[in-house]
């Protein structure tokens, strides 16, 4: 296991949960969500890649890139339905369940996309490129829908932190921007980096001995 990314991912995950527990409106929620799935999760997946803790190694037939991409899509969009968001915001059980679902979905997708090293992993990593880019697209769409909505979708009081106060609509709009910049950006960069790795491996295989 790679200790540095694993430790960094663990620290960032704790920070995400602390941010979620602070209940700072949609801006705080989106910040915690993106910190979990788009920053901490890839670091954790990188840290355990290829080890006995790697879910893609333990259950390769289940933890596949496209399947995990679909699971994350359903969980992310499902938890951003107004009723589910209210359940998570207003109850401790809902908030804990939401955060566990986010980090599990993110970790499984990134682990499935990273796969294992070597030529045998090329098809899986190529599928990982598609899965990450598709995830970037649906994160972009959801972020745009939340950020550009003309009315408040979620019954919050807005962002309140000390002397800084945002109306519910401004809070929601900034939350959508966070998802667009951090969520969509992370999966896009991850997909492109993985694509570069796949192309390098194919180029190496194609060279004459």
Automatic annotation (TrEMBL):
Keyword NAD: no
Record field: transmembrane: 30-49, 61-80, 92-114, 126-149, 174-195
Keyword set, alphabetical order: Cell membrane, Membrane, Transmembrane, Transmembrane helix
GO CC annotation terms, alphabetical: plasma membrane
Compartment(s): Cell membrane
Primary localization class, coarse: membrane
Keyword Cell membrane tagged: yes
Top-level taxon of the source organism: Bacteria
Membrane topology, from the record: Multi-pass membrane protein
InterPro entries given in the database record: Caa3_assmbl_CtaG-rel
Pfam families according to UniProt: Caa3_CtaG (PF09678)
Record's protein name: Cytochrome c oxidase assembly protein
Source organism per UniProt: Coralloluteibacterium stylophorae
